[in-house]
Amino acid sequence: MKLLKLVPENTNIHFLKWRVPFYAISALLVIASWTLVFTKGLNYGVDFAGGQEINATFTKEGEAPVSELREIVGKLGYGDPVIQRFGALNEVSIRTKLPESAEGNPAAAEQISNRIVGTVRQAYPDVRIDGIDTVSGKVSGEFRDKAIYALLAAMAAIAIYIWIRFEWQFGVGALLSLVHDVSLTLGMFALFQLEFSLQIIAAILALIGYSLNDTIVVYDRIREDLKKYRRMPLPELLDMSVNETLARTVMTSATLLIALIPLLLFGPESLFGMTTAITLGIFVGTYSSIYMAAPILIWLGVSSDSFVKTESATDRQERITRERGN
Amino acid sequence: MLDFPTWKRVWLWGLTLFAIAAALPSLASITGVRWPSALPSPMVNLGLDLAGGSHILLEADKRQVAQQRLESMDESIRGRLRNATPSIPIGDISSQGGRLSFMLKNPGQVDATREAIMPLTSGAGLTGQRDWDIQVVDGTRFVITPTTEGLDQAFTNAMDTAVEVVRRRIDALGTREPTILRQGDERIVVQVPGLQDPSALKKLLGQTAKLEFKLVDVSASPEDIARGIAPPGDEILQFSKPEGGRTALAVKRLGGIKGDQLTDAKQAFDPKSNAPVVSITFNSAGGAKFAQLTSENVNRPFAIILDNKILSAPNINEPILGGSAQISGSFTVQDATQLAISLRSGALPVDLAVVEERTVGPDLGADSIHKGLIAMTIGSLGVVLLMIATYGRFGIYATIALVLNVLMILGIMALINTTLTLPGIAGFVLTIGAAVDANVLIYERMREERKKGRRVVAAVENGYKEASRAIYDANVTNAIAGILLFVFGTGPVRGFAVVLIIGLFTSVFTGVTLTRMWVADWLRKKRPTELNV
Prior knowledge:
- The complex is a heterodimer.
- Chain A has a four-stranded antiparallel sheet with strand order 3-4-2-5. In chain A, strands 1-6 form a two-stranded parallel ribbon.
- Chain A has helices at residues 19-39, 46-49, 66-74, 106-123, 137-165, 168-192, 198-228, 234-266, 272-291, 296-299, 313-325, and strands at 43-44, 51-58, 82-85, 91-96, 127-135, 195-196.
- By secondary structure, chain A is an alpha+beta fold.
- Helices cover 63% and strands 10% of the residues of chain A.
- At the A-B interface, helix 4, strand 5, helix 5, helix 7 and helix 8 of A face helix 6, strand 17, helix 10, helix 12 and helix 13 of B.
- Strand 5 of chain A pairs antiparallel with strand 17 (352-360) of chain B.
């Protein structure tokens, strides 16, 4: 049986030849992402912004009447409601801020949701209410803090682990590529104004894990090759290591995407944002482990000596005597 | 490396089959097959986002507990000093800044005072803990400050009671399998699967249900009441619903009784007006106090007060001696039923505010499981096809490992009784995509080793050996991310972390250990000279 090869054997692509332009592009993308996050802002869901979110499905219509909804809900006078589709065309979320008086006051919050649901039901009898979330300002603030702690702690812990298992240069490289991946994901969420919720934090933590899989596989090979080919110039050696692991990198990214894309297309609508984040993250993570994590080792000055104990003078003498004896 | 003695095989297969057996009841319930009830049936719970239902997060106010504690200490000190022999006269007790202070009228009584109030300041039980510190300032002024330990203890007790009361109230609603848990210091999570309209539940939990009976001060002028000026010894309380044109009344602070000594409360109808009321029955001590209050105040109005709002202020037409009474207050039947439940389950020791609430409809969850299963099936088929097309025989081993992996995750989740949530489904899909990574690493390495000219057995051995370092490091870093997600995440997101973490262990077990055993068997039986990988 002839087996399939996604990557031809014995590739010898000079990935690192382009490291400077690619670094420049990556740096620009990271800056652009943060600019977007600070100017356009992330579209925080109730988890992080507080307030009330009603999820509804229009069972008889192909497409949810977003602009009509905006008008009829807007008329109720609960500020400017955020109404957007997610996943399927006939599903919408209606998000309103809670007035000060309704914070922690279930009766007032409920009155608001009842009025919105009532109004929508009257205009569209086919609507199905899938869920109502109410989050007070205090709790959403805590969620925000926890999310930031979790992301920072994960990146720090992973960088330290890599530092211990490899060398400090590798830890810095892994951290840098993680910052790159997380920045770009945040940038995409700001650009497309996808709802940013607790699920997205979970997605980012998961993609940190997968992006790191790639980085570790490449690093592991670099470490091995550094010990084997002690005289090879570093850029050449890195290229060799990346090429040797290329088949695996492509294959694993492929299996992940094959598993994820059906979830994106046919999966539950409420997972759409999360799946999108992880799918984007797989592309970004694969790129960063080749173009961010590997080349930085050149600039940070990794050498074969990093993994080979330096020989003391007495050891050397002993070795020579031993070799002569043979 | 490729040596598998019998005891090892028994262990590996035993573990695998045990975990898979634990998954069967859950699988049966997903596919609608009946699981014989005679067999043990560990189950994966479905999270609210899949089963539908309500999640409510309640928060207690710590300051309120401190305030209440201060008030009751105030009352106890007064009582002690009044009843001491000889009695100890004091000035007003002030409760400024969270501490009590009062002046002795007679400076010679410092020691007697200290002795009288000392028993009030030690903690309950034999812990020797001090709940309050006593200081004497300027020779005659006593300052009594709550200790942090005492305050914490009081708050913990209040929260324990609150959880109990919440449980009793929810049980009274007849909802099934509610989850009621303390979360952190000052919060209680309530989850009720299947509950679609949480309004009744929230109303019930939002009601502190502190019932009091106090005498109405008929001498207070309506103008003063309207302006909120209370005559000495009185307080102005609002009606919960205006009664006969009145919105507030002045009631006497002292001399009332609390309605916490009840043996029963139920919704009933007033025999004359047929309006819904709550009929309550006191226990013997409460009944005696109530009889005394009503006998001493015939023909005067008294206010029935719930959570500092007046429900009604009827006249006492005759002494009520039987130990039961009726609470009227222009209720609807539903209002009266809820109040009866709240009174029956006892008052909450502290007000609870709803700080987070999530309700999921029933159709959404079933829909999500259905769509999740479809996505998972298509994804798995795709991964399996690619693996078999790329690695042939070894792809088949990876496929079997993948199927066992998914079943084992489900089985372990059932055994440790965790909850499958919507993001958990995403966790399954991700695990399917990522679990084969270990196989890819090993097989690619085998290819390389073979290309370098190693013989078949050596290539296989080296493949497993050299790949295992990267597999190990990758799994540890993923575990770090997963554990942080579990620690910082809440609810559904935790469900995702659980699947990821269990998946890391099972995928190494099935993808590395089990496939190695199968490959070793194949090598021994067939003694292949070529490695088609």
